[in-house]
Amino acid sequence: MNKKEIILFLSLLISCATYAQKSDLQQHAEAALESAKPIEARYTFIRAYEDYANKGQMKQSVECGVKATALYYRENLYKEAFELLRRIEQSIIASQTDAAKKSALFYLTSKERYNMYTKLHKGASAKEQLNIMEAHAQKSNDDEVKNDLLYNKAIYYYTMGQTQQGNAVFKQMADKLTASKEYDKVDEVYKTLIASGRRSGSANMVAQSYNSYMAWKDSTNALKTADQINALKKQIADNEASIAEKDSSLTTRQVIIIGLGILAAALAAALAVGAIILLRFILLTRKQKKTINMLNENNALKAKFISNISSQLSPTLQKMDARQPEVKALLDFSEHIQTLSELESTMDEGVEKEDTQMPPFCESLMKQIEGDVKKDVSLKVEAPKMSAKINKEYVSHILLHLLKNAAEYTPAEGKVTLEFKKRSAHTYQFLVTNTGEAIPEEKRENIFKPFLEIKDLTTGDGLGLPICKQMAVKMNGDLEVDPEFTKGTRFMLTLHDA
Predict the structure, then answer these.
(1) If 65 and its partner were Cys, which of 88, 224, 358, 370 is the partner (CB 3.0–4.6 Å)?
(2) 8-state DSSP, 323
(3) How far is 69 from 119, CA to CA, in rounded Å?
(4) In what helix (H) or strand (E) does residue 337 lie, and over which residues does it extend?
């Protein structure tokens, strides 16, 4: 090898090593994301996407671009998210990447659109993107992309309540990985699907996934045992072949026969132990299934029982002196139980909406808490002169509850603000902000969950925010605490008009 060839070889090695490493921009973006700095992470991911694109490293470029897109729509900035995806796709088209790899990259951008439409509850648009993803996956000729497509199709069908189609797609993916003996991957996929169902609050998805997982686990244990038996049989066959090829002396044969006898005994013992373990696992699995079904049924009966008790107690409580704190607390608790039960039982039903002018609507709500605030607390409404279609009963209930809480926890000379913002063509947001002490981070995820603690009912029953959350979800929206606001507390009520 001459000097020029050596230099060229070293240059190729350096370029390959550079290609495989993450750029400083990407590492900076990932560090910002881990440190809960989403705006900085988003800005740096965009810079990393542009830097990689200029260098022709399109796979890394697109991966950084879609991460920035996800950070946009996480804050409901859908317009910016869609615009960034269009820029990414123009970069893919202009690149020198071959057709199959371009399809794999277009799959990533289509997948991000699918995620956005799913979050916006636009089923038809999400299904359209799923079809586009399928076309790109076929053209990419990439098994990893095809497996990811099957996973997303299963998630879509389960989310839309199409359990039969979801089971079929997920079985196709599990069978594909099981056939190639990638048992650990299948196990991980099932666990991911169950976790997704829990995060989305879909009991049907969790139950279906768990049942499929248990059935697959039973069959896989049998396959693994069969694989072990076949491996041992092959080893025995190989040893026997080796015996025939080697020295045929009696001593050698005796040693090998003794070894085979020991191996056969070990095989029999292993099979016996394996059979016992498998039998115990099957019995335990059946017991777990029965337990889960029993718990689900008990929870439904408990909810109905509590609701019935509440409705029967109300007439008696209303005859008592409501001026007594204990009686008033029981009346409020009974009413909250009834409201929560009605919301849960009618969650699939739609709500009526009416066109409402925002400035007078917000002003009237703020006026109702004027007598509840402490000394010199300022009340401010920021609502543009526009109208929006909302369910006034639910929105009024939620905002008034948040404003009363804000009035209670805002110190003297503090500030309470009610804002209305139009985030996109069909997305609106109400923001209720108050200065003072913020809700501790460790308590934020539990404030919307009912019945988490036993407390004196005269100080509140803890059902106010869970009821507000249920109302928001029923209106095709969401209620959450803004994690980035640190000068007090900010609640965000997001509503989708489509």
Answers:
(1) 88
(2) T
(3) 13
(4) helix 325-345
Count, residues in the chain: 498
Region of 376 please: left (phi>0), alpha (psi -120 to 50) or beta.
left
Structure tokens, 338: 């009834």
Angle at 408 between CA 405 and CA 411, to 5 degrees: 125
CB 347 within 8 A of CB 320: no
pLDDT of residue 313: 61
427-435 sheet: strands from edge to edge: 378-382, 415-424, 427-435, 488-496, 477-481
What is the reported pLDDT for 287? Answer: 63
Residue 321, SS3 per DSSP? coil
Alpha carbons 347 and 28: distance in angstroms, whole number: 43
Retrieve residue 412's tokens.
């003297």
State the pLDDT at residue 10.
44
The owner of tokens 């995820």 is: 445
User: Full-prediction pTM beyond 0.70?
Assistant: no
The CA–CA distances, whole Å, from 197 to 13, 210, 324 equal 45, 10, 44
Average of per-residue pLDDT across 482-489: 89
The predicted structure's pLDDT at residue 89: 93
| Residues 481-495 as b or e (16 or more Cβ within 10 Å = b) | beeeeeebbbbbbbb
How do the residues of the chain divide into helix, strand and coil, expressed in percent and rounded to 5? 70, 10, 20
